Structure formats: structure tokens, C-alpha cells
Amino acid sequence: MELIWRGIIEAVHMILSADREVLQITWLTLQVCLFSTLISTILGVPVGMLLTFKSFPGKKAVLLLSHAGMGLPPVVAGLWVTMFLWRSGPLGEWQWLFTTNAIVLAQIVVSLPILISLSYSSFKKIDKGTRLQLKALAPTKIQTLLLYLKQAQFGLWAAVMAGLGRVLAEVGAAMMVGGNLQGQTRILTTAMVMEVSRGNFEIALALSFILMTIALALTFVLLRLQQKEASV
Amino acid sequence: MKQVSKCMMGMLALTVLAGCANSEENASGESDDIGGQMILATTTSTYDSGLLDELVPVFEEETGTDVKIISVGSGQALAMGENGEADVLLVHAPAQEEVLEEEGAVINRHRVMHNDFVILGPEDDPANINSLPVDEALSSIAEDNHSFYSRGDDSGTHFKELDLWESAQIEPEFEAYEETGQGMGDTLRITAEKDGYTLSDRGTFLYLKDVLDPLSILVDGDQSLENIYHVMQVNPDLSDQINAEAGEAFVSFFVRDDTQSIIKNYGIDEWGEPLFFPHLID
């Protein structure tokens, strides 16, 4: 119990004293996680749409893979991304291993299936009658798609929240592909693992409070957006 | 086709990000004699002890190279070297290093420093190994089936531990012998928590001593417990991406007198004794 108090005090102290390293780690975590969620959303929502409204060969396989992928352990994603990014690997030329790009890439791999599967569910929920109505309302294909987006947005926001939650929580992949390099690829979760192994439980606890605060704040914003848009 | 163009878009966006990151780095580095990035694969013990935090910034300043320190077990560090995935290695598994040197995977190898391994156990020492010779201490632990926590991760410390069992002519297969499969810090914490025995390098133990309450040094000082570190370059022929110039510069940097004296003095202020002993100066 005392440890928890000390952790809270340490966290407040770290934030108030604007500890440069902690601020840098927090900022980097935000950048990396928001960016990877953004890319996953940009890629995942159209794919979810495609799966709902179009039929094409291999559709069932894509559905299965994206749904199974929601449970893909981050270390597995990390391992594969690492192997691709090795100097001897197919993407070795990019020199991305142990950079933030590698973390973003790994986080996309773990969050994309969530975005695809959950946006598929959201689009699927639009019932047939509404669909026909929307088609009648919109003269062009693009307008139809935009109306679908609007109809499905409640679920889509939930998909974004789930994806973001996943990348914020993820540590195995970021550790493997990023290397937890001080000032370069150290994010909140990897820093916590390191501090625990060094026996600095208070610092780890303090970092965990910062991470949870960020998660809470971001979810709050997204939830507001979801409720606001949905009530229109 | 649609899929491909989507992928391309994603990659494009990522490349833009990469571009931003790079330009930031360039702006902050002033001297650029060698430049580029260099991957230093090293052991958890050198990294956790904080020694590299002291040395690497000096090297980065001198050469304008962006050093990425990857701290893993010596086994993994050597494997990275063997595959050309690192540029320079700082490890403590001499027998395994020699194999790579013979294969030609590493070159320009130099002994740079040492410290020692210690056998740790609970203060009340149920196996009664305090100040015993290494062989006898190990056989006492094995015979009475006391908990012993091995790294079990192909690290330099793990290799050393296996050597010690072998020279004591004991198969470490007794029931209470367990492998943690984790780094030194975690293994020490598990050992402390479970009142067991373990082998550690002195540096990491001193560094973590405060949080490892009941553990104390029971056996040390034996010749066989010497912990020798070598620095070496990865053979540039292994990959066209190896920063050979930086690797060579790092080896020269490590054997230089002023670097060696930083090693010599490191840790005295904080722990009252040095964590590493340089090999090339007295």
C-alpha cells in the first residue's frame, strides 16, 4: 500500500517537476500511438467497408484473418516485423529497426485487424432498408459511402478506441522492434518494463499512472466525439 | 491493386515520418566526422550498470555517430554479430567469441575490462557455502537441493555458470535448480524473493543491491570467477549496411587511455568501489 502511495507521489512529482526525460517519453508515446492508430483507421475502415458491401474471392479468408488477428500477441507481431526489418531481411534497406518507424509499423500490425473487424461489424449493422434508402438519397457512389460512414460512425469510433487502447497497452512488440533506446524509442510501456527489472518500482508505478491518465484522457475525448456525432 | 496502393500510401506516410525524424537528428548533431548510425550489441550487465551511459555520449560527440545500444544476453549479441545485424559488440563470453573470431564474423577484438562473478545467496546461508571454494559451494547447493536460479538465457553469465558446474563435475539437474530465462536484474529479484542462490556479475548486484534485501555475496575472489569483457567489430563483409568506420572508431575509442580511466573510476563515488577494472591501464 505504501508503495502505491509513493508511486502516486512520484508520478505527481515527475509531472510537476517536468522531468525532461519523462515528458519526452510521454510525448513520444502519444505521437507513436496516435500515428499508428490513424494509419490503421485510414487503412482499416475502407477494408471493413469493402468486406461489407462487396463480394470478392477470398473474402471469407480476409474476414477470418482479420478477426483472428484481433488476438494476435504483440510479441508475434514484433517478431515478424523484426525479421522483415533485419539488415538481412526483405526490408533491411530501410534501416528501420530500432527506430520509431518500426514501432509504428508493429503497432499497425496489431491494431489493423481490430479496425478492420470492428468497422466491418459497424457497417454490417446498417439494415437493408436503410441501405436502400441511402442509395436512393445519394446520387453518386462517393456520397453513398459517406452516408454509410455517417450511419456506422458510432461503431467506428468504438473501433478507433479499441485500436488505440491496443497500441497504448502493447509492450512486447515495441520492445523488440524499438529496442527501448533512451531518448529515441523508449515509450511508456517499455520504460516501465525496464524500471521494474531495475527494481525501481516507484518510477514504474509513476509511469503507469501517466499512461493510464493518457488512456483515460484520450478515451474521454473520443467518447465525447462519439456521443456528439451520434446525437446529431 | 487497390490493396497495393493502400499499402503504398501507408508506406509513404511512414516515410514522411521517417524523414522528419532524421532531419531532427541531423540538426542536433554538430560534429560529423563519421556520422550515420551504429548498432552496439552488448550485455545487460554493462548497460544496466550505467557504464555505457557514461561512455557512449562521449563517443557520439566525437564522431557524430548515432549509437543504438541494444542490451541483450551475450548469446543474442553474438548472434546479432554473426548475422551482421550489429556493427560492434561488447560482450563477456570469451569462448563463444573465439568461435566467431575464427569464423571471421568478428574482427579487431580486444580485451578491454573485467570484473568478477560472485555467488549470492540468502544472508543466513542454509547451504553453508560462505567463503567455500567455488566447486565445493556448488556441490553443497546441489547435494542439499537448495534453490538455485540460473539465467538460462545463453547470456555470458549463463555460459559462465554452466562452465562452473562443469568444472565442479556436477550436472545441474537437481530438483531445485531452475532457469528464469530472464536478465540479470530480474533473476536477482527472483532469487532474493525466493531465498535462493544465484551467480551474478558483481556490477549488476552492486547496482541493484538496495532493492535486493536478503541477498549477500557468499563466494568471490576465485580465479575462475573472472568476468572478462571484449570489444570487437563485426566483419563489414557480412552486410553492406555495416558502419565499419564507426565500428572501428568505437574499438579504438574503448582501448584509449582516457576511456580506460573513465572505466576505472566509474562507480566509485556511488558504490564505494569500481564496477569494472580496465585492462589496458593500471
From TrEMBL, chain A:
InterPro entries noted in UniProt: ABC_perm_TupB-like, MetI-like, MetI-like_sf
Membrane-related topology note: Multi-pass membrane protein
GO biological process: one example: transmembrane transport
Keywords, sorted A to Z: Membrane, Transmembrane, Transmembrane helix, Transport
Segments forming domain ABC transmembrane type-1: 26-222
Chain segments annotated as coiled-coil in the UniProt record: none
Regions crossing the membrane: 25-51, 63-86, 98-118, 154-181, 201-223
Subcellular localization: Membrane
Main location: membrane
Source domain of life: Bacteria
Stated name of the protein: Tungstate transport system permease protein
Gene3D superfamilies, A to Z: MetI-like (1.10.3720.10)
Species whose genome carries this gene: Salipaludibacillus aurantiacus
One GO term describing the cellular component: membrane
TrEMBL record, chain B:
Domain of life of the native organism: Bacteria
Keywords assigned: Signal
Domain PBP: start-end pairs: 36-257
PROSITE patterns listed in its UniProt record: PROKAR_LIPOPROTEIN (PS51257)
Name this polypeptide is given: Tungstate transport system substrate-binding protein
Signal peptide: 1-18
